[in-house]
Design brief:
Layout lengths: L2 H38 L7 H10 L1 H22 L2 H24 L2
């Protein structure tokens, strides 16, 4: 194996882990959002665009659509090779979506 091949493999591993974590965050956010709005109502959702979509088409179709779009866009970034951005977005979702939902749902 050439020296460059090890670096390429490490970047590939990092990229694969980043997109896997990103997709897991999307699934967790969708599930927690569903539980959150089922428990506390639509007022618990902070994203007005998502709330509007939920009012228009229902909670499940809105969440599936939003999470599918996010996953597709994340995969697009992954295929472009911008794995640090995917990893950063994963951290943003963890801190800005997952942790707040866990806090809201844990206080019940």
């Amino acid at each position: 194996m050439l020296l460059g091949d090890k670096g390429r493999a490490a970047r590939g591993t990092f990229g694969n882990l980043a997109i896997l974590a990103f997709l897991l965050m999307q699934g967790a956010d969708g599930a927690l959002t569903y539980v959150g709005i089922a428990t506390h109502g639509l007022g618990a959702e902070a994203n007005p665009l998502l709330v509007g979509l939920m009012v228009s088409v229902g909670a499940v179709p809105a969440l599936v659509s939003a999470k599918t779009l996010a996953a597709v866009l994340g995969m697009f970034l992954h295929l472009l090779g911008v794995h640090r951005i995917v990893a950063l977005l994963t951290a943003v979702y963890l801190g800005g979506a997952i942790m707040p939902w866990l806090s809201v749902l844990g206080t019940r």
